[in-house]
């Protein structure tokens, strides 16, 4: 290592406070979405010299960049721009969407240029207003719900708590909020975790952490399940108080066992079965804490009952698991069980998360458009009896064969949408050759959901659930999963015509070829 390289390495290692000397540090920020903009805004405020390189640019953000003094390079980034090379960056901060093998990141590795993500930057400057504790949440599914619940429980106990991260609010915005917070509940995607170091000045030291579950997802980004799993496991590193894991998902237990944690950190399990000491679980319809009480070997604390959760739409098994995980995180921070009980009285799931759209003629219409992978769809399917399943979209390199095989017996019919229909149709033909199977073949976004809903209405029977749980991403035909869900809502509303009995007569379905 040259003297100049060693000096730069020492300088970067010293950047562990808002009050450190960031002045003049040359930083390339990749991407100008919500995260990229927060990074650029933060770094310019710190006095760094910033060049934003982005393939897509929002005009309003571009104008603000000019005002705050950051440079902007509009470039497809399919290669390393000459302007980036000429800028001679000392640091690159990559937005989460850029693959690890991206040309610019590969060039950075070859050139020994440090690459951070927004989470590492936020951790390093977390003391701008005050130094909040961090609670980290990741997993294949249930992250947003668990983050929102945990933050709700903490706030109900009088703490200044901010749900942030992959939930939509950049952690950098929360760190720079002039009001300050006591605790940040941070949702982390595998993309964000990929760039996080496990040790050194940029490594996180969270108060508590959880991996809710782990299943195949984003394999097109990470390259393998092992790489995806290893990224998720990073949240447990250096945890100070509680590593919360899923007793029904042994991979999460192994992650805790393998993690280097701080002295005194405890492993806390959650699951839908009877809890052991140091666990959260369910006993005869009662959600219980056997972890945060002195007499945990012979007693438990009652959180809430399933009967109380039922009218609030919170009794689906995966939702109950999320409640237990969020309760464990909040209890690790000292929130009383009574506060959690009362807070659940007002909690509502996000739109497009196992949301009942209508009940008509004995048929329930449910929007779980947020089930963007097979693991999420499986949890949704398990929550209902006989299902007419609307499935499909962009599979992201994930094989849905096992999902179809596991749930074929509960299906009344399947309606397949999206660009990756062929793989799903083949799976249904292998595992459920007698099942009524229909394809929506249109490429017109405006007609996908009306066609799917009409087909579902024609085959659904009293007592069935028509379930939109696509097990796939939405970007093939929709703007995002929210757009997909809203179009499902609209199509159901139009089909039912506002009639409680749903007397409209949909067209006769034609089986897919």
UniProtKB/TrEMBL annotation:
GO molecular function terms listed in the Swiss-Prot or TrEMBL record: ATP binding; UDP-N-acetylmuramoylalanine-D-glutamate ligase activity
Catalytic reaction annotation: UDP-N-acetyl-alpha-D-muramoyl-L-alanine + D-glutamate + ATP = UDP-N-acetyl-alpha-D-muramoyl-L-alanyl-D-glutamate + ADP + phosphate + H(+)
Main location group: cytoplasm
Domain Mur ligase central: 137-284
Sequence positions that bind ATP: 139-145
Pathways per UniProt: Cell wall biogenesis; peptidoglycan biosynthesis
SUPFAM superfamilies found in the cross-reference section: MurCD N-terminal domain (SSF51984), MurD-like peptide ligases, catalytic domain (SSF53623), MurD-like peptide ligases, peptide-binding domain (SSF53244)
Matches recorded under PANTHER family: UDP-N-ACETYLMURAMOYLALANINE--D-GLUTAMATE LIGASE
Database matches in NCBIfam families: murD
Family assignment from sequence similarity: Belongs to the MurCDEF family.
The protein's name: UDP-N-acetylmuramoylalanine--D-glutamate ligase
Organism: Agromyces fucosus
Lineage: Bacteria, Bacillati, Actinomycetota, Actinomycetes, Micrococcales
